[in-house]
Structure formats: structure tokens, C-alpha cells
Amino acid sequence: MGEPLAYFLTFTTYGTWLHGRPEGSVDRQHNLPGEPLLPANAKMERARRMAMRQEPYFLDEARRAVVLRTICEVAAHRRWRLWAAHVRTNHVHVVVTAREEPEKVMADFKAWASRRLREDFVEAADRDRWTQHGSTIYLNSWAALESKVTYVIDEQGEMMAHYDNRIDETKHNEPEA
Predict the structure, then answer these.
(1) Which of 2, 48, 155, 169 would you label with 42, given CA atoms 20 to 30 Å apart?
(2) Which of 15-19, 78-82, 159-163 comes out lowest in average pLDDT?
(3) In b/e form, how buried is each residue of 69-107, taking b as 16+ CB within 10 angstroms?
């Protein structure tokens, strides 16, 4: 199938999206599109909360703006094509084309965002801001890419810090089967 057209990345802020929560969550065994989320489990959620070393980390409006600006800067510097990004209070969605593996792309976004948050808000270097890893989905068709851009920009509820680089329908053609 070749290289994917793009990646759909999602990562959450520390302590805000614990396994067992009523809304569901994703783990390595529940990370494919269309698969059910982990079910609610109050005991599991409570155990995860008790194991936290720090308070949950939320992104207020100013922090969301810093994270978005940083994602745009990192993508431009690395020459990655940023299609869409939406920085929410407790998670971030990004659709990006890059030659690197999605885990590296996500790690770069998180590391540079953490650095900028430390600098701009005089936060402790050892402050946990992000959960480990996140979700990495390969987008192998223009339809899949367009669908995720729409999801990231239009289907998140209240608009927060976002980047919208909608696909120009005249600039590509879906290969015929």
C-alpha cells in the first residue's frame, strides 16, 4: 500500500482521561477505528487516579494557544504537511503528513509543546503534561484524510485553538481502482 497519506494523532493531557472513565478510553487493544472503547469501570478509574503522581493537567485558553502555535512551528520546521489540529482542554488532535513514524511525530509535538509551556508559564520541568503515547492512525486514502480533517475541525464541539488547512479538492485525484 506504500506510505500513508497522513497520520491522525491524538494525545491527552496528564490525568484527564483515565482508563475506566464513563466515556470510555483507548488502550493498545482498543485502538482501531470502529472498535469499542474500554468500558466504564469505576474501580479501575479510581486505581488510576490513586496512582497519579501529580494533579491532572488542563489546557486553558492561553496554554491551548501555545500548544497550537508550537505544533504549527514544529510541522513547518520539519517540513511536515499539517492538515488540521485542534487543541482542546484535555486532548489534542492532529492530522499531519510526515516521512517519520507517527510515534516520533507525536513525541516531537509533545516535547516541544512541553518546552514552550515551561518557558511561557514558568512551569516546573518535571511537571507531567501528557499521557504516555497516544493514538496513531494511518490515513491511506484521500477520503480517510478528508474524514479525519472534518472530524478534527467540525466534530469536536465548541471550537477551541485550531488550525484548518482544508484539502483543496482540485489539487488531487483519487487513483482509480
Answers:
(1) 155
(2) 15-19
(3) bbbeebbeebebebbbbbbbeebbbbbbbbeeebeebbb
